[in-house]
Automatic annotation (TrEMBL):
Sequence segments annotated as region (Disordered): 22-45
Segments crossing the lipid bilayer: none
InterPro entries per UniProt: DUF7730 (IPR056632)
Full protein name: DUF7730 domain-containing protein
Listed PANTHER family: 2EXR DOMAIN-CONTAINING PROTEIN, 2EXR DOMAIN-CONTAINING PROTEIN-RELATED
DUF7730 domain residues: 90-212
């Protein structure tokens, strides 16, 4: 093959004519069709196999030790094994899922949503709960705010009553951020009546370890109006983060 022919082939391969635009849609790979997963079979209501042949379920194996194993596997805060789906359906492990883990929810809507999907027997097995929320004042601006943040003043007392129904609760931590709508970096402008309406429903909740963390010093007038507190009030100043309120 002569060098003239090689040069012609190379030019036609690597240099396209500028007068004609190539169809990029033909060059780009097309997305493969989505796989259609078969529907999940319905949950069986039949009695489970006792698995008597398994040493873990042997009559000679102490039940207390078996529950300790469940707690170590399902309640570890660093190895989140409880999020891995299994189909074993060990009834003994259900309560451990709720007693050995700390649950975190956001705002009044988070509390009510969590309560609505938790079976009633397991709801009372919850031992540790964290609630974080954001309020803006004046209260009249956000009576029944649709989106979070900020939280809903009307829905908040109802959600606190739901938390109050947790009979087995041992530790409760509530993280509050309260700011003024017009000057969100100045905590002294927060409406006192709104602050009272936020803290008052929490005084009806009790737990052996109950801490409310707030980003501002609560005025003495509000504290006197609240009366005796059922929680430890911790003031932790937090800088204003525009990203949390960018949609407002």
């Amino acid at each position: 093959m002569s060098w003239e022919m090689c040069f012609t082939i190379c030019c036609s391969t690597f240099f396209q004519p500028t007068g004609r635009r190539r169809d990029r849609s033909r060059l780009l790979p097309r997305n493969p069709p989505k796989r259609q997963h078969p529907p999940r079979p319905p949950i069986s209501q039949e009695m489970r196999n006792e698995q008597a042949e398994c040493p873990l379920f042997s009559p000679n194996f102490p039940a207390e030790l078996r529950l300790s194993i469940y707690e170590a596997v399902l309640g570890d805060q660093h190895r989140l094994m409880h999020v891995i789906p299994f189909d074993d359906h060990y009834l003994e492990a259900i309560n451990v899922m709720y007693t050995a883990n700390k649950f975190s929810v956001k705002g009044a809507r988070g509390i009510e949503a969590f309560h609505s999907v938790t079976p009633q027997p397991q709801w009372h097995q919850i031992r540790h709960l964290n609630i974080s929320t954001i309020f803006l004042t004046p209260r009249q601006y956000y009576p029944e705010h649709e989106w979070f943040p900020p939280d809903n003043y009307v829905q908040w007392p109802t959600s606190c009553a739901i938390v109050q129904s947790l009979h087995g609760l041992r530790s409760l931590q509530v993280e509050l951020i309260v700011r003024d709508t017009h000057d969100r970096k100045n905590e002294t402008l927060v409406e006192e009546e709104a602050l009272f309406s936020i803290l008052k429903p929490l005084t009806l909740v009790s737990a052996p370890l109950f801490e409310v963390e707030i980003n501002m010093a609560v005025p003495e007038t509000v504290l006197k109006k609240l009366g005796e507190l059922t929680f430890t009030l911790v003031v932790k100043y937090k800088p204003y983060e525009h990203s949390l309120f960018s949609a407002l």
